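Service request form, structural biology core

Requester: graduate student, group of Dr. S.
Request type: structure prediction, single chain
Budget code: on file
Notes: please return the result as structure tokens.

Sequence provided:
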Amino acid sequence: MSSTEVKLSRLLILAQKFNNFYLTGFHKGDIRPFLVEGQQVGLIKSDVLKQLVKYPEVFCIRDCEQTKQGLVELNPAFRDYNERTEQLEKVLRNLRSEELFPALQGWRDEYFEVKSDHRALLKMERAATPLFGVRKYGVDINGYVRHPTQGLCIWLQQRSNTKETWPGKWDNMVGGGLSVGFGIKETAIKEAAEEASIPSDLVKNLVSAGCVSFFFESRQGLFPNTEYVFDLELPLDFVPHNADGEVQAFELLPAKECVERVFTPDFKTTSAPVVIDFLIRHGHITADDVVDFTQIVELLHVPLQSLYIYKTRLEQIQKQQKQQQQQQEKLPNDESNCNCGSLPIKPLENGHKKAA
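Core staff response, request fulfilled:
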């Protein structure tokens, strides 16, 4: 086996790792769509469902006759954004006090918006989102320099040991979740200042580079994540330093060493897609070098929107049923459907009879 094939296997295995739920989770049969206002906004596993059944005034748990699939729906009697948020918050705080889920021990008092078709339906404590399989959005900044002797070099951060998630792991230079009240570019600028003290005269050079998406599962829950990616070329003499206590170190690595760091267990798994995407876009991982290049690229852009389509699927089934009903109504009854009985019968040569 060539060295290229070895690298390929490692890249593909890593891509499969941060998409472990996308590739295998749906086949286990222990998940239900989570609906708000008739729209699917999440997925709920059986261990969470066992706790939600204790709150029948908040969650309607039933089977859908049309789709033949079990579902969990936030009580449709809740009138608006605020009431839905308040009722859900009460349940989450109860679950947190019972210490049933590791995810809730990382409670932050930071809220993510739960949306459908760009409409905000409620807000949810960030730590709780993995329990409901709610889609999450964040921003990541690839800080890099073009070194005269080492070529393309990438800044990485080491997360603080006190972080609620992935403590002490290596990560992208800057990253953060899209919280309620903040836009995408606004979040990128805010996180750049807080995590790496990047001044405004440099951060103005941020270049939008699209997004990556993946579907990861850990003991914390489900992570259907979309990360908006920015590239930022930095001067050789710039050294980032942390301002919010969430980063313990920064390190500048040549591209090849950065790849090796991503493969280690010391790197945050859900940040690997951003680094791989950056290296592909900058020509350090190419189709000539990697046989399964297209598979890897596809696993950097998982179509999450096509996985949250309960309402669309239900509407399609209802439409099909309506069409079938209309077709049946148009069909004549048995007597008028066949005129054979009114025709005289003549014998056939082979002994059968035929209509005249």
